[in-house]
Design a protein that fits this description.
Layout: H1 19-26, E1 31-35, E2 41-42, E3 57-61, E4 65-74, E5 81-88, E6 93-98, E7 111-118, E8 124-130
Antiparallel strand pairs: 1-2, 1-3, 4-5, 4-7, 5-6, 7-8
Amino acid sequence: MAGSTQSDVPPPNVDLDNEQFWAAANNRQLRIGQCAKCQKPFFYPRHFCPFCLSADVGWALASGKARIYSYTVMRRVGKPYVLAYVQLDEGPAMMTNIVECDFDSLRIGQVVEVVYVASTNGSLVPMFRPVDRHA
């Protein structure tokens, strides 16, 4: 692809708890856990509900919309980046990176949407970008 650069995003560490999450990400889908017993959504991927401890859990398709809950700009590194917690519209919080924006214009509560960034091995990693990148 013309104009593309080599990614510096490390590949995901796939294990039994999160393999379905990463498979969905490679299909540009954001999936979160959903308990069949108490009906509560959760994130990070695991084989039991963190609320009621039921093992009857599945995967729900998330909208990919969220709000910035907290963030920090990592500037004392070779390539600055934003590490953030976002609150998904479905409820759970997710640690992620905020990309495709002016770091100095970010704010708590800002609406963000999921984007998929290729890692060094080509696997897609969900990250977020501001919906209104010109605000």
